[in-house]
Every structure is written in structure tokens, then in C-alpha cells.
Amino acid sequence: MEQKLLEIFKLADELDKKQNLVYAEIEYTADKRKKLIISIRSKKTFKYIERCEIELANNPLIKWDNMIELFRSYVGGACNE
Description:
The chain is of the alpha+beta class. The chain has 2 helices and 3 strands, in the order H-E-E-E-H.
């Protein structure tokens, strides 16, 4: 899990450097559910373009991979703005 979280942080930083239309937002709530919310937002309007939520207490490895792929697609140039 830690490796995937580190990869998400690296991709979020890379997204900001390579994209002038969108940025990443990462929120973590440390309650019993341990909820992580990853969002792609418009730099112009601050609206959410994509948003993923996972509860880390359930160890959802598939969702980690989906989040990483989402970031990779936006770092590579996918954008709806």
C-alpha cells in the first residue's frame, strides 16, 4: 500500500508540472474507515473533473491501480477542459 501511495504522490506532483489545465488534490481522513480521496480539478474553475474515494481499512488493491492509471492518463495529456 505504501508503495502505491508514494506513486500517487509522485504522479500528482508530475501532473502539476506537465499540465496547465488541471491539478491533483489528495485528502486523507484518519478515522476508523481511513478514507482517501483523490481528485483531478480544473486550474481555471476549480471544479472536479475526476474523483476517486477508497476506504483503506478494506485494503482495495484494485482501486489503487485505477487511481494510478487515472493520474497517468492526465499526466500524459488527457484533459476535458
